[in-house]
Design a protein that fits this description.
The chain is mostly helical and 183 residues long. It has helices spanning 11-19, 23-45, 48-65, 75-93, 114-118, 122-130, 134-145, 150-157, 161-182.
Length: 183
């Protein structure tokens, strides 16, 4: 049993202790990863209080399923996937995409001048993404940040691939308009 945070020498030991329901190890894991995972949740749900609720639910899942982490790939990547999925489940419960419709032409791309991107910090950009409508933000995060395909997004969110493409196109347009306002 772990008696202090100093006794945890490495990640493997920490994970073994968490799998044995060691509350100190769980607290250590929470303290190590909650700031990064809160950022993931914020990217999806957009509101700090809702993101904290999702973070809590995500850690419950982590502690229930920690035995399923098999060491392939990074542990942080495994965590990130859990928190992204927990955020998406939260959004799905709110049915954020129920009024989406497919656009017939989503091939139109919007461009943002380099000077606009040069004038915005990463914090400001993340804040802007967090203020997107829920459906836009979910698809934008999944596609542009997490690297999901439109087929994967459609399956996870229970929408068509066309709706995913439409939401991404609209999100990009929405973002472009906000970036233009910043200039």
């Amino acid at each position: 049993m772990i008696t202090s945070n100093r006794d945890i020498l490495d990640e493997k030991e920490l994970l073994r202790a968490c799998a044995k329901q060691d509350s100190r190890a769980q607290r250590t894991l929470y303290e190590l990863y909650s700031p990064k995972m809160l950022t993931v949740c914020m990217r999806y749900v957009g509101d700090r209080e809702r993101a904290r609720d999702v973070l809590h639910d995500g850690f419950i899942t982590v502690f229930e399923k920690i035995d399923s982490y098999n060491g392939s790939g990074s542990f942080e990547g495994w965590l990130r996937r859990i928190f992204a999925n927990t955020s998406l489940m939260y959004l799905r419960k709110g049915d954020v995409l129920k009024f989406t419709e497919e656009l017939s032409d989503v091939s139109k791309e919007y461009s943002v001048e380099n000077t606009v991107m040069g004038n915005i910090t990463s914090k400001e950009l993340l804040r802007l993404i967090a203020s997107m409508p829920d459906g836009f933000r979910a698809v934008f995060n999944m596609y542009a940040i997490e690297g999901y395909s439109h087929l994967e997004i459609a399956k996870v969110l229970g929408i068509t691939e066309g709706s995913s493409r439409s939401q991404l196109s609209r999100a990009r347009h929405w973002l472009q308009e906000r970036l233009q306002d910043i200039r």
